[in-house]
């Protein structure tokens, strides 16, 4: 009964619970130690704690695979990883990736990765002007973006330095034409520290000509616009 309850609760809480649990498990004794690095990625103790969590017998098999894919995502290993290009744009990853059930092929769980890119930056296309903030969301392992989106992917944001707020709708702008499905958008935030909440969905194409509506758990982040 206990294991069944844990499995059910784990599926219900989603990856946000995994991140919070891993941070708690990896919390160091010294108050100065950090759970996230300068890019908002989990530090090695947190990644190790996530791996240890995945080894627990009460973790459902599909959730175990998702956790390990997330670890590979942040370490830049696995398929796919996230090596950072040299001389690439400055990015701020959202606090944690998110998962989308019944997404890949309309059946398998996909990992959604969200990043923010402060301007000025040439990438992602068509570029991000100075004083603005770009958002990119990718549904890893999926086909391309469907022409009709069932529900929009949005980022609600607030600049805590100048008081600006807004909601930016992410759309398909030619990034990764054949997949994985990628949406992006740009917000006129002005300079300052920006807090963000990503939510909504992305409708992807399938090999048989159909579509799959992928709805991630919301995720949060912060970025500094110079």
Helix content: 10-25%
Spatial shape = globular
What class do helices, strands and sheet pairing give?
Answer: alpha+beta
The gyration radius over C-alpha positions equals 18 Å
Organism: Dietzia aerolata
Signal peptide: 1-31
Keywords: Signal
Protein name: Secreted protein
Features:
226 residues, alpha+beta, 5-stranded antiparallel sheet, 4-stranded antiparallel sheet, 11 strands, globular, disordered N terminus
Q: What does this protein look like?
A:
Helix 2 crosses helix 3 (44-54) and helix 3 (44-54) packs antiparallel against helix 4. 35% of the residues are buried. This protein has helices at 2-13, 15-25, 44-54, 61-75, and strands spanning 92-93, 98-104, 108-118, 133-140, 153-159, 165-170, 181-187, 192-199, 202-205, 211-214, 219-225. The model is unreliable at 1-33 and 79-85 (pLDDT under 50). The strands form three sheets. Strands 1, 2, 3, 4 and 7 form a five-stranded antiparallel beta sheet that branches. A four-stranded antiparallel beta sheet has the order 6-5-8-11, with no helix packed on it. The chain contains four helices and eleven strands. The protein is an alpha+beta fold. A hairpin with a 5-residue loop joins strand 5 and strand 6. Helices cover 22% and strands 31% of the residues. This is Secreted protein. Residues 1-31 form the signal peptide.
């Amino acid at each position: 009964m206990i294991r069944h309850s844990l499995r059910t609760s784990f599926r219900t809480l989603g990856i946000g619970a995994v991140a919070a649990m891993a941070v708690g498990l990896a919390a160091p004794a010294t108050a100065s130690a950090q759970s996230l690095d300068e890019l908002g990625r989990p530090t090695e103790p947190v990644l190790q704690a996530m791996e240890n969590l995945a080894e627990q017998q009460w973790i459902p098999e599909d959730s175990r695979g998702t956790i390990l894919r997330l670890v590979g995502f942040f370490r830049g290993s696995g398929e796919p990883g996230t090596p950072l290009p040299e001389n690439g744009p400055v990015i701020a990853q959202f606090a944690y990736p998110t998962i989308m059930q019944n997404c890949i092929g309309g059946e398998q769980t996909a990992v959604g990765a969200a990043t923010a890119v402060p301007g000025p930056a040439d990438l992602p296309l068509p570029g991000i002007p100075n004083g603005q903030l770009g958002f990119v969301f990718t549904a890893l392992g999926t086909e391309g973006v469907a022409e009709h989106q069932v529900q929009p992917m949005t980022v609600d944001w607030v600049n805590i330095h100048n008081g600006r707020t807004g909601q930016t709708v992410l759309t398909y702008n030619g990034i990764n034409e054949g997949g994985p499905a990628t949406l992006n958008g740009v917000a006129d935030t002005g300079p300052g520290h920006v807090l963000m909440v990503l939510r909504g969905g992305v409708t992807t194409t399938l090999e048989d000509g159909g579509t799959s509506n992928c709805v991630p758990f919301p995720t949060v982040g912060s970025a500094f616009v110079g």
